[in-house]
Amino acid sequence: MAVTTRKLIEWKRKQRPIVTLTAWDYLIARVLDRAGVDVILVGDTLAEVALGYKNTLPVTLDEMIHHASAVCRGVNNALVVCDLPFLSYQISIEKAVESAGKILKQTGAAAVKLEGGSPDIVATIAKLTAVGIPVMAHLGLTPQSVNILGYKKQGTTDLEAQRILDRAIAVSNAGAFAIVLEHIPSELAAIITDKVPVPTIGIGAGKSCDGQVLVTADLLGLTEKQPPFAKSYTNLRELITEAAESFILEVKEGKFPQT
Ligand code: KIV
Questions:
Q1: Taking the model in full, what pTM does it have?
Q2: End-to-end CA, the chain
């Protein structure tokens, strides 16, 4: 049975960890889905890992839709969530509904993710949920605010920690079905996980979260620079280089093709 947002909430109650990875194309999504990943996030980090931008800000709604459609064509079982890119939802609630609606209508994704927990964003989450668009929230280090926050750990002072906790409660009350917690102290993530009824999905937020997410390019060892909390489970950069070098050699030496 395909993964649903309700299933994720049930898994939190049963303490069944939720496994999330990002994807940006059909091939990767198909492999991750067959491997048994629960949630596939078409994250706006695709701006960096697939499109070569230096941060997530330049990626457009149409580019997200293009990639999310390809991902959805490769997925049978996982819940596909697509990021709302920078300025596709912050300007007004109407704009957010239009952008999120376009994603659901045109890609096959089942939900959207957006960053932040200010009162405006909380109202946006409530509206999206009310019109039938499930929302995954994202708190802590929110990369779309890189020009204000940088990439440093968030919630390290009592004041900041309290603000993130308050925002987690607010986005959950507004209807978010899950909350990504990025680069915050594990003690704070544990408190939030305990206080909200919806699953927390951590990235650099410690082991108490209800699930974990990694950027797949980091998981595969494709990225040259990784955040301190990422982990590579293989080194595809080396493997691809070796394969390409072998091909170059065989072609130059006339060994491929054989006849
Ligand atoms: O865009 C993304 O890949 C993300 C993950 C880091 C959670 O938001």
A1: 0.98
A2: 48
